[in-house]
Design goal:
Helix content is about 10%, strand content about 45%. The chain has about 200 residues and is mainly beta. The protein has a domain of about 140 residues. The strands form 2 sheets. Strands 1-2-3-4-7-8-9-10-11 form a 9-stranded antiparallel beta sheet. Strands 5-6 form a two-stranded antiparallel ribbon. The longest helix has 8 residues.
């Protein structure tokens, strides 16, 4: 890991594991597991001289998603008008390049590190955020093309918990046609179980 507190920069490696056959079948949950090595980074702009830009932060990731079971396509010959010829796929997945970038603007950072804001406490904890997520096929055959997803939203946080909500807007036809929403609640372990939440060292 590369870490520079002075420049508010971090670069790290990680691995994400998606377990197959988890989730609701009606939501088309994947039946094949996927392992994704990732390169992750984060950059805050508190080292800039322009006060209005110092609460900005950019985070992102780039990785290669490796499916446990490779996707295979079997051509169907013959057929007629009622059952035309085509291609049958197994339950595997293609490998994919994946990545994402987020841009955030923390009012909490502005109030604590730049200058005091005469705003209500609930507003001070807000962080507007916009994420752009992307994936593209990295192997053949492939059932899905390049996908883009744009996710604008808000995060509210304090020392103990954080709540975020974002819209999920398809960036192209391959990503779908409907707008969705996602929400997340994070509660510090020290709030739930104070003894477990203490530092080990």
């Amino acid at each position: 890991m590369i870490h520079s507190p002075t420049h508010e920069f971090v670069l790290s490696l990680g691995v994400q594991r998606l377990i197959g056959n988890t989730g609701a079948a009606r939501l088309e949950a994947g039946q094949t597991g996927v392992t994704t090595p990732l390169l992750l980074f984060g950059k805050g702009f508190g080292d800039l001289q322009v006060d209005a830009l110092r609460p900005l932060a950019v985070t992102g990731s780039f990785g290669y998603a490796i499916a446990d079971r490779k996707l295979k396509a079997t051509p169907i010959t013959g057929g007629d008008d009622d059952d035309p010829a085509g291609t049958v796929f197994n339950k595997g997945l293609e490998n994919r390049w994946v990545g994402g970038v987020s841009v955030q603007y923390s009012l909490l950072y502005m109030d604590a590190e730049v200058r005091h804001l005469n705003l209500p406490d609930w507003m001070i904890g807000l962080t507007p955020i916009v994420e752009v997520l992307w994936s593209s096929p990295a192997s053949r055959p492939s059932r899905e093309g390049t996908q883009w997803l744009i996710a604008p939203g808000l995060i509210w946080s304090n020392e103990n918990w954080q709540f975020g909500i974002e819209a999920l807007i398809p960036g192209n036809r391959a990503s779908g046609r409907n707008v969705g929403v996602i929400a997340q609640l994070k509660i510090g372990l020290g709030v739930i179980a104070p003894r477990l939440g203490r530092p080990l060292f």
